[in-house]
Specification:
single chain; 304 residues; mainly alpha; Farnesyl Diphosphate Synthase; 2 domains; 16 helices
Length: 304
């Protein structure tokens, strides 16, 4: 295993841990809060912008997503990941039948009950994580969008449930934002993903531009790659901007977070453009000062 989190927490709470005592809701919430605040800086900042009544519910959802993601990506083999994801889905089912014992699901059960969240968004995420073990390439952009439907869009829909604003209109806008963010992360991490055997750039479009598998293997930066990635970056930006009206349709307490995630995604895309799409040579990032400016900009937008 490669993740300290996975090694430590699987020993404590995994299928072979032999847990006998179910944690209290307070203990489970504390576990999720610690996981959220220590594992991902951007989420910790965003969660503190929320009213205190919403934070434990965001922490529970984040903890579920974090465990799911790490079970998919941070263990020794695809076969082991699939087995652990099956176990994790059995824990999800137990959560919905009221027999959860894992701290994530003890906390999540309270969130599900308070906000009437169906099982589908949680289960759809696991569908995507299983797909990661079995599929490493996507032939068309539409196939990639199908993957994002399960890998990214459920997260936004869960947020809408927490805001009690889950409607067909808000779902469509949220899906556009979440898919745009997922694509921005893919184009930021072309080199990292290729290192673990994954290529999210649509294969048909790679061939149409003349960018071959041999060029991928050499991590070759050329005009074909620049044009290929430039088109994907433009697509992601269009999706993020198409979702911007969501900011005005959600409760005020969610607006700054949604605006911040949109602007963060756009900033990633801008950083890719600034290095002329040469993500093979360096991973584009958003600096701390730029993040602060994004936060101020999102705050201002949320006040309108």
């Amino acid at each position: 295993m490669t993740s300290t989190f996975v090694e430590h927490d699987l020993r404590l709470y995994g299928p072979a841990a032999g847990v006998t005592a179910t944690p209290t809701l307070a203990q489970a919430r504390h576990y999720c809060q610690q996981l959220a605040s220590s594992h991902y800086e951007n989420f910790a900042v965003a969660s503190w912008l929320l009213p205190s009544v919403l934070r434990p519910h965001f922490h529970a959802i984040y903890a579920y997503c974090r465990w799911s993601d790490d079970l998919a990506d941070e263990v020794r083999s695809d076969a082991e990941s699939l087995a652990l994801l099956d176990w994790w889905e059995s824990e999800l089912q137990a959560c919905y039948t009221g027999s959860a014992t894992h701290p994530v699901f003890v906390a999540l059960r309270d969130t599900i009950a308070q906000y009437s969240i169906p099982i589908e968004p949680f289960a759809n995420l696991l569908t995507a994580f299983r797909q990661d073990q079995n599929r490493k390439r996507y032939e068309t952009f539409n196939e990639l969008l199908g993957y994002c439907e399960n890998s990214a869009n459920p997260v936004g829909r869960l947020v809408l449930y927490l805001g009690r604003c889950h409607t067909p209109e808000t779902v469509a806008l949220s899906d556009s934002i979440c898919t745009g963010l997922q694509l921005a992360n893919f184009w930021q991490d072309v080199a990292r993903d290729y290192a673990i055997g994954r290529v999210y750039l649509p294969q048909a479009e790679c061939r149409a531009k003349g960018y071959t598998e041999e060029m991928f293997a050499r991590q070759e930066y050329n005009a074909a790659f620049r044009e290929l990635l430039g088109e994907q970056v433009d697509r992601a930006e269009a999706m993020l901007r198409a979702g911007e009206p969501l900011v005005g349709l959600v409760p005020r307490e969610l607006r700054i977070d949604i605006a911040l995630f949109i602007r963060g995604g756009l900033a990633i895309l801008d950083s890719i453009r600034q290095i002329d799409y040469n993500v093979w040579q360096q991973r584009p990032t958003v600096g701390r000062w730029q993040k602060f400016k994004l936060l101020l900009s999102a705050w201002w937008q949320s006040r309108r």
